[in-house]
Amino acid sequence: MSYRLGVDVGGTFTDVLLVEEGSGRTWRAKTASTPADQSVGVLNGIAKACGEADIDLAEVAQVLHGTTVATNAILEGKGATVGLVTTRGFRQVLQIARSYVPGGLAGWIIWPKPEPLAALENTVEVDERIASDGSVVRPLDEDDVRAQLQQLSGQDIQALAVSLINSFADPAHEQRIAEIAAEVLPGVPVSLSSDVLPELREYERTLTTVANGYVQPQVKKYVTTLSEQLREGGVAGELAILRSDGGLSSATAAIDSPVTLLLSGPAGGVTGAVWVAEQSGHRDLITFDMGGTSTDVGLVRDLDPKIGRETKVGDLAVRASSVDVRTVGAGGGSIAHVPELTRALRVGPQSAGADPGPAAYGKGGVEPTVTDANVVLGYLPTTLAGGEITLDVEASRAAIGKIAEAMGLESVEAAAAGIIDIVNENMLGGVRLVSVQQGFDPRDFSLVAFGGAGPLHANAMGRLTGAWPVIIPPGPGLLCALGDATTSRRDESARTVLRRFAELTGGDLVTVLRELADDAGRRLAAQGVPTDEQTVSYQVDVRYHGQGFEIPIDVDPAWLADPDAALQRLGETFDAEHDRLFSFLLRVDHEMVNARATVTGPRPDVAPVVLSDGDGDPAGALVQDHRIYVGGEYVPAGVYDRARLRAGDVVPGPAIVTEMDSTTLVLPGHAATVHPSGSLLITPLEG
To answer: Strands 190-192 and 238-242, how do they pair?
Structure first.
């Protein structure tokens, strides 16, 4: 019997899920993260999970890992010193950027412009020029290249990025610079824009290439170290890293293109949510991942997560495919406060974090948080994580009492209820960003809630959005690790075409897409996925001729069988999407901008767990009688042990369902039905 390990590293905890292939049996481990060297926490978690299963590390066939190494390098400003090579006359491409300033009018007065990832003093120009059609306007001056690289050699750069104008049309000059750099700057990793992002728009292409170089040394060090330590520890299986778009890449591919890993963590959660939704028979879903500091929200249609072309981390926005996840500054540790000027209650985005954390944790925290409000209302039991954490109810009441006093409320419970209502409304804003503002009605979707705090607020979010059922997966705090363990290999190729439809034929479109698919397929085959096991999907960026933006349109592979009709179908699909998003169409020709092919390997053979049948009565799982504050009064509620629930059992609200890594709240007027796959399906009661 072989095993797969899903590993997700968070800011506080490292989650490990060991899956026995075939039976689908799982073992879970949660250990403290080690920010100084994440591999230490990962190895501790793997050893703990294997110990729980009583297996040798040599029996692990694959370690599938979602990592925040690249993300943290960006957020903490601890990436490499990058040297940048540009075409003469374009040295300040990163400084000029897009002249966009966030915020309202006059925002530029107070906006601190972030420093580019490649400093101006580490940026050099070389004498060359390629036209947008790929013709050479000015040949590459190799002597000049050597002189400029020699100048960078004295700057102690740790990575080199090369981004020349129009190199997407002909990469020859960039490739020659890479060859010269290997001589002048031996040992310095080189990122070429024609490899990282072979698309037009010089700023986005340059920024993405520089970001790739910025995080590459740290990612290489981490992945290489972890691979070596896994081998030394006896793990015979390979290490694969989760990409931002929810696919897997080999360790080598991750090192070569680390910019694809910037949203590796949230992507695992979306992938895991898709898995559990499919097991429970639902294909359209909104993912709701609420942690201690923030909440990540995404949208999935027909089990296919929405993939965006922009990845945002802090102030950085690069062009790389990633799961379209929106983040809201609301979590269990979000701090409530009442500004003296307005006397209106606010929640977040400031967070108490893990240290000292909410007042209830007894680690010295005194600020009123969302977790403390849940404790005051009775939504959280006094013990968590199987008794490992004991909550201080009086400390929570004292913290929330400060809010009640500031607002002139008579009861601490009223203040706590206000905090919960506001944080729920804040998170509703995130849900609207991925649904209503994208033209989707949330009532047409189910809501999958996970993360440590997600199930506690999920019922309320379902009531606010109308998204039913609310699905609470088994082990919601470990769902990201499940996503890592149940995803597939993936690779992508892209190319700028930039031609009006009047200048294209269906055959041209089919030829471009199939060439891209062959290119990505060869790389995936090199990672061990045979060609006959690969699945291809296509996407084309289309706009009306003269527009300054484009819309990504998915191309049905079946269209390629009829090239004459393929171009017409692409135009019609674009028109429908443009009308859905903006409610108008233009009577001008369409224009193809970029084309992409994504090649995916088979999904891992991990069988789902099936619960034994119950009789519908959850009484055997009832742990204690309890009271919670809801609707302005205390009402009786049962506390249930989720491990004792069986398929078909129905838990009527108000109720609390506890498990090792999370707590689920079922509100009055609702009920949670246990699905055979282990998920809780919360729905309103009829009448």
So the answer is: unpaired
